[in-house]
Structures are given as structure tokens and as C-alpha cells.
Amino acid sequence: MQPEDMEQALYQEPTADNIQDFIRVLEDHRRTCEHEQKYVEAEMAKNRIAELKHQDYNRRYEELIFNQTQQREECEQAHIKQYQEFNQQWDEDLLQTQQEDAQALGALEDRHTQEIE
Fold first, then answer.
1. Percent of the chain surpassing pLDDT 90
2. What distances in angstroms separate CA 33 from CA 14, 63, 83, one per listed residue?
3. 1 and 41 in contact (C-beta within 8 Å)?
4. Is the pLDDT of residue 100 over 50?
5. Distance (Å, whole) CA 24 – CA 49
6. CB-based contacts of 25: which residues, under 8 Å, 6+ apart?
7. Is the Cβ–Cβ distance between 31 and 24 less than 8 Å?
8. Does residue 2 register a pLDDT over 80?
9. In terms of DSSP H, where are the helices of the chain?
10. DSSP state, 19?
11. Over 70: is that where the pLDDT of 63 sits?
12. How far apart are CA 27 and CA 52, in angstroms?
């Protein structure tokens, strides 16, 4: 393990893409320190690992919540669109039925008028 990797893992903030690499480097360093009986340094690495795992968990959790919220909003929008399309089709069908009924009523009135005459 390179000393630069160790310093980066201990003191720099990882990104979402490389956090697992940071944790892996720190785990290796912690095991090395324990083997060399550097328990204070091993404890620091262990604490940093726990901190990074917590950060990664929080990031993943927030990402999950964001994705679920986005999916729910998309579903709601699709439902609203489907509802509007249904109402539009219903209105068109109702108007057509009313027109057909009016024509049929007019034809019936004409027929009755002709039969009376």
C-alpha cells in the first residue's frame, strides 16, 4: 500500500465512485497496523472506515429516496394523463350519443307528424 493512498483514505473525502476503494485501502491498512501492533492507528482506520460506511449508506439511502420519489411522480403524472384522456374520450362519446339521440328524436317527431297528417 502506498503512503499517498493511506493519507488520501484517512483525510480526503471520497466520491460516490471511489468510496469502496477508500474503504478497501483502510481495511488493508487497519489489518497491517494490527499485525504490527500499532493499535492507535488501527483504531483511527477503523473509525474512518465506520464513518465512510455510514456516509455511503446515507448516500445510497438518499439516492433510493430520490429515485422512488421520481418514480412516484412519474406514475402520478401518467395517472393524471390517463384520467384526462379518459374524461376527454367520455365527453366526446357523450356528445356523440347526445347528437345521435337528438337526430333519432327529430326523426321520430317527423315520422309522428307525417303519420298524423
1. 74
2. 22, 34, 64
3. no
4. yes
5. 9
6. 1, 5, 6, 8, 9
7. no
8. no
9. 3-11, 19-35, 39-116
10. H
11. yes
12. 11
